[in-house]
Fold these 4 entries.
Entry 1:
Amino acid sequence: MSGDRDALEEILGGKIERRGERELPGLSPVEGVEFHYYEDDGKNKAKKQFNALLDSAGLIEASSGGVVSDSCTIYLSDNRRFHALSYHGDIDGWREAVEAGANARGLLLARIEGDQLVVSDGRSIPLSECKIEFS
């Protein structure tokens, strides 16, 4: 069975994660992919918020690639939540779109740097002080 998994991972070009073994998106760099976390608006489910974030971005000028949501949420000690997303292809174009959508909706963004969650309001929070949940 391990040989089959190894072969499939080679075909797919990456590791297949099992439940309970998931790594926090953005903890380890992935070539050609950038990770961000957007603040939960407290009103809607994550999928609806993800769509609203992109809808609020205005004209998206990314020329290639795409953006996807991830089933990972980081909870801060002040009860704020951040949902993961990643983008590939035109990294600058997608980053611009995500930032524009967050600005339009008044939401904070965050990213992982080492063992810290760095929030766009200037805070840096140790990941060890956060609750991390995969749904």
Entry 2:
Amino acid sequence: MSRNIVEIVKRYSEFCQITKSFDRNLKMLKYHSVENGKVRAEFTVTEDHVDNEGHLHRGMTTTLIDMTSIRALFTHRNGFVGMSINMHISYLQPALLGDVVYIDAEVFKILQLSGPRPMGLVDVELSKKNEMRAENVIARGQHSLTPYLQEHKKNV
């Protein structure tokens, strides 16, 4: 992975530690690798991440899939920083308070459509640590993204 990408991910992680914005919800992520269209991270489910039943909140799961897929796409050789087109998530079983969760995101494909902008397809899987068997998968997501438009970036 290029030094520039490492620095960007490091700065973003530091930003998550101090911000009051929504990104603060990702301060618990520990990145193991971020390179070549793949991201591997982990975190421990705390009270900040669970719903009223003590399960990893589905909105948190969605956020994790969104943000890790963006990083995977950014590090792909033909990648870009993208905005979501579509996201499909299968919630297979709950993660509980205290569970350690792995997140694996990988760029599946970059499509060059008929227009000027490509579309990135990223697969993401959340699973319980040390239990990569299919019956221990918490959620699977597929995320479609396209590059930000310059005029959109000005308003963000």
Entry 3:
Amino acid sequence: MDHDVDKLRDVAGVLNEALALLKTEEHRLAEHRAGRERDHDDRAGSPGQTVIGLGEMTRGLREKLDGLALYAGFAALGLEKRAEGERRRLRMEPRCVPSGTNRMARPLGEATVRALQLLRELDTFFAGGFAARIDEALAAPRATYPPADWEAYRRQGRIEATTPGAS
């Protein structure tokens, strides 16, 4: 196995704890919004976008936990080819973490901040720069997605794609 069982257990523990924190935050926001007319505001940082961002992050962490279990199971069963595929997927950054925060109102909720701080511990587990992206998400002064001006957003994406060294 690429990682020993203790390391995998540690990674699973962090993922599981972060997932529980984000689910708590989702529940808190759902209770806060209960009984109110549905908010159809699609602006970055709106209550609806905040819930969408949290949902994206919880799904991403759930997928990573599932992938970790598959990897460990395939490796333990001697299915090396299947284990290798899961290992490659497992090492990729969780889908929408921390990018789900781009939709979320500031200040971020306490449970969201704590979950992201926990996930920073997995910087060396995930491929390149995970902690730096979490730091950027935590420092962002406001939500940025969806953009107010889609054409400017597309133009900026084209500029960044053609600029050497732009990320």
Entry 4:
Amino acid sequence: MVVFSVRNNHKRRYAILLLSLACFIIYRHFGAQSGKIRINRTVGLRVNSSQFTLGGEQFRILGGSLHYFRVPRAYWKDRMVKMKACGFNTLTVDVPWSLHQPEKGEFRFQGDLDVEAFLHLAAEVGLWVILRPGPYIGSDLDLGGLPSWLLRDREMMLRTTYPEFIAALNGYYNKLIPKVVPFQFKKGGPIIAVQVENKYGSHARDGNYMSLLKEALQERGISELLLTSDNHEGLKDGGIKGALRALNLQKMNYDDIKYLETVQPNSPVLVMELWTGHCDGWGGLHHSFPAEDLFAVVREILRRGMSINLYMFHGGTNFGFMNGAMANPSYKALVTSYDYDAPLSEAGDYTPKFHLLRDLLSSFNRESLPEMPGLRWKEEYEAAIMFQHLSLWDALPYTHEPFKSQIPVNMENLPVNNGNGQAYGYTLYETTITSGGSLKSGHNIKDRALVFVNQSFIGIFHQRNLELAAPDGKGKRSLSLLVENCGRVHYGKDMDNQRKGIVGDILLNNTPLRDFNIYSLDMTSEFIDSLYNAPWKSLPNKPSFPGFFQGRIFVNGYPSDTYIKLPGWSKGVVFINGQNIGRYWDAGPQQALFLPGPFLNSGINQVIVFEEAEADFKIEFEDSPDLGMTVDI
């Protein structure tokens, strides 16, 4: 027992306690993980012919991806313990620049974005870590995890040595990298490898970019094994000397493996992303990769002596507006769920894939696997009846001050958020017309716009609908376009062109519209909180749309996980206690939103729904998910 003097100050006591705790964690968890009381920390993960070594001993990576930003912090440890119980020894985590630096001068590393706490937990559970710090992570996130304020520069060339991009990257790395350096293996931490960049081979257009990134990491203290990962077509151009090339695939492809061995001989093979499923797009089907097919691929990879990382082990949820979008064969925004047909479901439940993999991986672990943790109860709460209504037009005074501009201005270049523009949500463009006729968008709406004349709905602009008829009328009338950023493309060569809102002229009878009032409706938690003071009205029989609807959900006792279902509603966003749970859309496939228990309070909880076109005036809370009709990959 350590006895403290009364005269010792708080800082000294706190430091001693932290030191004692750190020593205990290293002894208890890292020692147990290596099968020894002490482990050689002078030699990290090394490439030794066809095998890896860690601490000088033979090592095989049995990894799975888990994203802290898609899982409530209260559930981080639960997901990690389940990963350990499945037989995995390594956790792979991506770090989203866009979420950590939403504005140039603002950095967020607290709460659900506390990456240091996440790494501490991984060490406590006994998992090694492969860190993927970006700058681009892909991960089916809006703009692949790059912050949208980069696009304020009209000349911006993302993922290149363009000076403004590198200057922004250096500012971010100066904040991030010092936080993760102490967690490296040779410093006593769990990080055994760091990825230089993700899938650059598919994007490669700057021969100096990867070497610059490598130097940026090493200059800031990254000293563990470096790696890159690419699909077959990017393996050659996506690599960099001094970093291990790793392969991405879904089904067993011997030609891909042979090609990797040709490009990188005398090295162990790491399948960095073995896709357990696929992301879903609105208007499509839910993708499934049969459990027996995944099992067969994993078994064959391990039989051949290779290492593996499942993408994803647990997918989680695209809370808020963080979802990305696919560009090919045509634009399609991704749904809120990131279940990914992974071994753990969106809510952290075991799937058949988990059980098959646990049985398989048990033979690759020296000790018996930990017991499987119990599952969390799902609750079917009483429906929330909407009892108040606020029209979009009545909510405008609670947004940013409108910006007056002769021509339309895209979201990213609006003078809001301390000069960083608007990242997510909706933007309302209003002007005056004096006649009816043909309205043409000319592909300048990104991505979808509800159009109104004198606040009466006349139609929708989207990728396949570029022309509308404006009704005739007398005198001046208001024309409003409510434009939604449905999600920026997260992959491919079109990422520089992901500005949202109205990005060019809208024509009325072939004449460009001018003189706009532009409202930024980014729907942050601060905006939703400000609506407490708005002039809500009792719900009328025929409310106006778009609009906000308010109700309550009562939770008796400790809050449980549940699923929000909105039959009879059309398209919009759900907020619980001011927190953006995500988008819903009757286009499917997703028919229910996951609502984690930690987002609820015991007692009364506020529910606000922003609905674009149609409402049933109640939302349901059920105990089972509904990801929609399924198609096998």
